[in-house]
Amino acid sequence: MKIGFSTSWIDCDIDRLEAVAPVIDALEIGTRGDTGFFHSLERWVRRHEMPVQSVHASAGPHKTHSEPYYTPNVVSLDPSLRQKDIDEIAFSAEWAEKLGAHALILHLGKVEEEKLKQEFLRFKQNCLSNPDERHLSDRRTSLEKRRRELGERYLDIGLKTLNTLCERFPSVTFCLETRAHLHEIPLLEEARFIIESLPVSNIGYWHDIGHTYILECLGFGTMDAWQQKLYTRCIGTHIHDVNEHLRDHQPPGNGNLDFEMIFGMFSREVLHTLELNALHTPESVMKGIHSLKQSLRRRGRDTGEQLTPARRCN
Questions:
Q1: Closest Cα to residue 254, out of 262, 263, 245?
Q2: Mean pLDDT for the chain?
Q3: Bridge partner list, 207
Q4: Under DSSP, is residue 225 helix (H, G, I), strand (E, B) or coil?
């Protein structure tokens, strides 16, 4: 099993890649960076003969601003906003083809209701400060019900958009990333509906381990449910640890996740990518990579066995 590394950590400083290049197998191109950065990164990749296994939309030389942009309007009800982000994804797909990357990761968008978003964020804060299950249960149920009702109107848009992209770029697999917030799309059943409804083979999902762990901790499903229902359609993962404050994108070993158990959820063919916050030092990143490889060795690299549930939250 090979470990990829997201350029999200280098924070547009290509020199930072030199610290990790000897211990990683491939790159994922993250969304932070502008035209000049992505051209420089492409030259670095070719000079070092470093494989690029995935590209995250919207990354590529078409970008003029260095701040990350995650195409939040792919399924927007506003056609003009939606088309802008479809174009962004298409530019990223073209660049992925040029780099030889077969996976394009995308955020599908969000439910456009500010009230739902704010209620979810308050609920999350309440869970962290006063996790009284009886007090929160009714609110959780209400949030889930409202989210399902609102999400239905976005699914047809998602189907049409993704079908067009998949047909236009048959050599690229479009991967719906699992999200960390209830107001974002897709939920598990939404992803399952989209993936199973599309008449194309180059559609799948990208399992962000930290994101699904956070939603599990808040009581919104389980992180292994995605694999139980979409095991054969998982293309890759984002690996990062999550601490007791539900802060994600930590180096492995800096949080609560049991990666040895988690790797048992995935087949051998799944692409694994370490995606870390840029604030972590090279020393902590190298320590995290070492910890991750230890988990892989203990797992014996045989990840095709019966699914093993990940560690549950307290």
A1: 245
A2: 92
A3: 237
A4: helix
CA quadruple 199, 225, 180, 265: dihedral sign:
negative
- Residue 139 lies inside a defined structural domain of this protein: no
Token pair listed for 228: 């139980």
Does residue 303 carry a pLDDT above 70?
Answer: no
Query: 183 is in which domain, residue-wise?
Result: 3-112+154-299
pLDDT, tens only, 85-144: 999 999 999 999 999 999 999 999 999 999 999 999 999 999 998 866 667 889 999 999
**108 is a domain residue:** yes
Whether 97 is in a domain gets the answer yes
Comparing C-alpha atoms, which of 110, 255, 75 is closest to residue 182? Answer: 110
pLDDT digits (tens, 9 = 90+) for 225-250: 999 999 999 999 999 999 999 999 99
Quote the tokens at residue 220: 């919104």
Query: What is Dmax (Cα atoms) for the chain?
Result: 58
CB of 157 closer than 8 Å to CB of 73: no
Query: Residue 270: which CATH number?
Result: 3.20.20.150
Q: What is the pTM of this model?
A: 0.93
Let me know if residue 184 belongs to a domain.
yes
Q: How many domains does the chain have?
A: 1
Range 44-62 average pLDDT: 97
Q: Which residues pair with 237 in a beta bridge?
A: 207, 272
73-77, 133-137, 161-165: least confident range: 133-137
* Residue that has been written with the tokens 């964020």 in this structure: 121
CA separation for the pair 261, 146 (Å, rounded): 33
The C-alpha atoms of residue 95 and residue 53 are separated, in whole angstroms, by 12
> Tokens in use for 248?
């994600």
Decide if 174 contacts 206 (C-beta within 8 A).
no
